[in-house]
Description:
CATH superfamily of the largest domain: Porin chaperone SurA, peptide-binding domain
CATH class of the largest domain: Mainly Alpha
Strand order of the largest sheet: 5-4-7-6
CATH architecture of the largest domain: Orthogonal Bundle
CATH topology of the largest domain: Triger factor/SurA peptide-binding fold
Order of helices and strands: HHEEHHHHHHEEHHEHHEEEHEHHH
Shape: globular
Largest sheet: 4 strands, antiparallel
Helix content: 40-55%
Distance between the termini: 29 Å
Number of strands: 9
Structural class: alpha+beta
Amino acid sequence: MINIVYFEGVKAIVRQVNFKFLAIAVLAVATLFFTGCSGTTGVSNAGNPGATDTAATVNGKAITMEAVEKVIKQQGQGQEGKLSPLELATARLQVLQQLIQQEVLYQKADAEKTVPSEEKVTEEFNKMKTGSGKSAEEIAKQMQEAGETEASVREGIKKQLAINALVEKITSKVDAPKDSEITAFYDGNKEAFVKKRGVKLAAIVVDPTKSGEGDTTIDEQSAVLRGNEIIKQLQSSADFATLAREKSEDQSRLQGGDLGYISEEEMKQSFPPQVAATLMDPKFQVGQILPTPIQGKFYILKLQERTLAEENLTLESPGVRQRITDELIKSRKDILSSSYAAVAMNEAKVENYLARKVVENPNELSGARPASANVAPVNTNTNVSTANTNTNANSAANTATANTNVKPAANTAANANRANTR
Length: 422
C-alpha cells in the first residue's frame, strides 16, 4: 500500500539559482582555454602588461595577456580592481600557468587524435544553452558582458572535450586490481566498511525553477501540479524507476531515481528533521513514498531499505569488493594522468614572458592595496589545469575515509555509486 501525501498547501522555499552556463563550469573552461596567436614577443610592463602582448608561448603557440585578463576578470567578479599590484601579478602568474598546462595538453590531444568533431562541439554547446535555463537573448547578453563570443566558447568546449578524451585514452591502460590487492586494502581499512544506521532511497524530483528549454515546471504552482500527477500515477501502480527516468528533474534520473544509501547522520544534515525521523521510523514501511520539499525542490522519496543497527561489512557484503575495485582504479588513473601531464610539460618548449618580465623588473610590483579595499585575492584555483587529472598523492589511502556528506540535489547521481557500503 503506497502512502499518499499530496503537495497541496506545501510552501516551497525556492532557492536562488545561479546562471550556470556563463558563471561557472564550462564557460570558465572555455575562458581558460581561449588563446590568441597575435601579439608581440614579450610583455611590455610587468605591472601593467598590454592586452595584446604575448604572455607565453607553448611550442610556438602564443597565449595572450587578453586571455589571462579575461580569467582574472571572471574569477574576480568585479573585485579584481581592489587588488594590489603584487596580488594582481600573483594572480596573473597563477592563471597563466594554468593556461600553459591546458595548451600543452591540448597539443598532446591533437597529436593523439582525440579532438572532437564540430558536430560534437555543437551538440555540447546546445546542451549548455538548454541547461542554462536562460533565453537566447539572456545568453547573448551574459556572453557579451563576459567578453565571450560563440566562437570563443565553442573553442573552449572543443579543447576541454579533447583533453578529457586524451585522459580517457591514456588511463585506459590501467588494469583492474588483483584479488590480493583488494584484500589488502580491505584489511588495512576495515573501519571504513561499516554500514551505519540509515536508509536506501530513490527519488523523483520536481524543480519549481525553470531549468532549461522545454521545462514546464517554472514556478511553485506548476511544480505542485506535476508532483500530484506523478503521485497519482504511482498510486495506480506505475513503476517508480520508470517514472523517475521520464519525469525527474535531477541527475539521479539516470539511475532510475536511485540516491544510494544515506546514513541517519547525513539525512539530519541534508533533510528536514521530520523527514529524517519519518524515514527512520519502523512504522514507515519499506516501499512507501514520502513527498516533501527539500532545498527548494519537491522530492517524492521512496524508501527502498532501512538499517536500524550498525553492521560491519565484509569483503563478501554486497558492493564492498566492487567499491574497493573502483576506488583503486580511480586512484591509479589519477596518478597516471597527473604523471602524464607532468611529462608533457617537461617535453614542451614553454616561454613564459610574463614571469621573465617580473624577474627582470621586481621593483615595479608594489605590495600596497588600494585605499578602502578590504577584499580577498582573486580565486585563481581554477582546478582545470589537467582536465580532471589533478591527483591527491594519498588518494588510495584516503578512499577509506571518503566524504560522507550527502546532498539530495545535483550530486545524487554520484551518491548512487556508494553501493550500500556505508
